[in-house]
Design brief:
By secondary structure, the protein is mainly beta. About 0% of the residues lie in helices and about 45% in strands. A hairpin with a 5-residue loop joins strand 8 and strand 9. The protein is elongated, with a radius of gyration of 26 Å. About 20% of the residues are buried.
Length: about 300
């Protein structure tokens, strides 16, 4: 291993601007660098990177509610460089892809690396969030398994980016889609049998609804899954600027009619509980996803 003499940093880095931005607003992060005794660091090279992803930031304080549809698999990775002005300032402007979609907030971390004339290097970072709309639709988490023929009971709230309620009576559209699976048996290496599953959505029902308050009870809505299977519930709205707002979830419906599932092994049966956690005395309802009929 190598041993180096410790040298205390001679300059400091600040991010004096804001770090949250509205939809479609250009992201501009001002940087201020100066020596500890007050003089600005001028002419120094700055290298920066921005790593972010969609759907990784939702309003805080709403545990038990589901927002958005993203699984944080859409990443943004940018980099650039610049030079500090005579006042020790630089504004970093990451250029976001206009095609990345705008139905979920973007959250990332901007990291800068600054090297002065003495080759001393300092790194600093700051979080950056770009919201996708004026407010978001939060859906109180539903049971994973429902019963065929029973209408859904929903609790949907409107929440602004700061985590405060955006009011009640906000209009939105709820759409119920059935997920139909079409499985094709395929023969793999060594004679192993596997299945290729194709997913198709079929609209079942739709209703125009309004949000309720946080302390209100769930409301039974005119949306009913008619038969067993896997379903998707999609909530749509638009803010004052026309930005789309989208929240969705999936669940299973138990019933007597057999359905095709997204199975991968004809000898395996999957069990789906209606809840993630149970308390003493609760009754667990388990959905059996069998690859054959008549069980």
């Amino acid at each position: 291993f190598n041993v180096y003499e410790y040298e205390p940093s001679t300059f400091k880095v600040r991010f004096p601007g804001r770090n949250q931005f509205a939809p479609d607003e250009p992201i501009e992060v001002p940087l201020q660098v100066g020596y500890y005794f007050g003089k600005p660091l001028s002419g120094a090279k700055v290298k920066w990177t921005f790593d972010g992803r969609l759907g990784s930031h939702w309003p805080a304080g709403w545990d038990g509610y589901h927002f958005g549809v993203y699984d944080s698999s859409d990443y943004v990775d940018l980099s650039g460089e610049g030079t500090l002005s005579t006042a020790g300032k630089l504004t970093i402007r990451p250029e976001m892809d206009s095609d990345r979609g705008n139905r979920a907030p973007l959250r990332g971390r901007l990291q800068v690396r600054i090297t002065d004339a003495n080759l001393q290097t300092i790194t600093a970072s700051n979080s950056v969030t770009q919201h996708s709309s004026d407010y978001y639709l939060g859906l109180r988490e539903l049971p994973d398994v429902h019963w065929a023929g029973q209408p859904l009971a929903l609790k949907v709230v409107a929440v602004n980016p700061t985590g405060k309620s955006a009011g009640t009576g906000v209009s939105y559209t709820a759409t119920l889609n059935k997920i139909e699976w079409h499985s094709v048996k395929m023969k793999g290496a060594g004679g192993a049998v596997r299945f290729q599953n194709r997913r198709k959505l079929k609209q079942i029902d739709e209703a125009n609804l309004q949000t309720i308050g946080r302390n209100a009870d769930p409301v039974v809505v005119p949306i009913t899954p008619p038969e067993s299977g896997q379903y998707e519930l999609v909530l749509r709205a638009g803010d004052s600027q026309g930005q789309p707002i989208l929240t969705s979830t999936e669940f299973y419906v138990s019933g007597k009619q057999p359905q095709a599932w997204d199975y991968e092994n004809e000898f395996q049966m999957d069990l789906v509980p209606d809840k993630s956690f149970y308390h003493s005395g609760d009754t667990a309802n388990i959905l059996l996803k069998a690859p054959i009929n008549g069980i």
